[in-house]
Input
Amino acid sequence: MKIYPIEAGNFKLDGGAMFGVVPKSLWTRTNPADANNMIDIAARCMLLEDGDRLTLIDTGMGNKQSDKFFGYYYRWGDHNLDASLKKYGFHRDDITDVFMTHLHFDHCGGSVQWNKDRTGYEPAFKNAKFWSNKDHWEWATQPNRREKASFLKENILPMQESGQLHFVENPTSDFIETSALDFGIFFADGHTDKQMIPHIQYQEKTIVFMADLLPTAGHLPLPFVMGYDTRPLLTLPEKEKFLNAAASNNYYLWLEHDAHNEIITVKHTEKGVRLDQTYTFNELFN
Output
């Protein structure tokens, strides 16, 4: 197996929304804000090459939304999914599997694109299976009012309409070794129902793709929970359980949304689990 970091495009989000009830004077120590209170956000996806199988974990926002839509998110930098795939010698038509941690637009928007005539939408990876789970799919296609703006039907329904949608097996606990894919999955319900956190064994390390369970290194303290989480009081024990396991087992945490820290490890301290080391992908694996 080989792993590649795929940068799907940077953007900005409101720092207060990203840190919930935490005072700005605290979260700006790790995530400085601009004059509009916006902080830097990445969409750092992961590509797994294993024999003939090429699995992409999350796909970023994509580019099919309106200028008004993107005006809320202040895209910046030169990263995009196609250029990042090309850097490693791949094209989106090579992708065999697209695994979506959850179906919020910044994680799955790149899974669907305009069709040739711009009269409708089609899967952006024509040869791929798209992976979700039944409980989260129902949650996303029948959204509550709080999350409705994050679950955009044009990002979601074309995967089902094309016949390319598949589901991993229903979890019998909060962690499963799925038979459909070559990695384990931790299920978390605080941010959104049945978010999936992949655990990948690679070069004698456990790499965990953190999605929105830990958006940035600045979110390590337990109370630092996003305002976007639907069940913040559930996020707290999920996060605590995971971070204790990560510190005890020396997991390498792949930060999807941290524009400045790619991979981190954590350690136990008197104040709880805290940052240990930061790495770039190339430092660890090249």
Summary: The first helix runs from residue 15 to 19. The chain has a mean pLDDT of 96. The radius of gyration is 18 Å. The chain has nine helices and 17 strands.
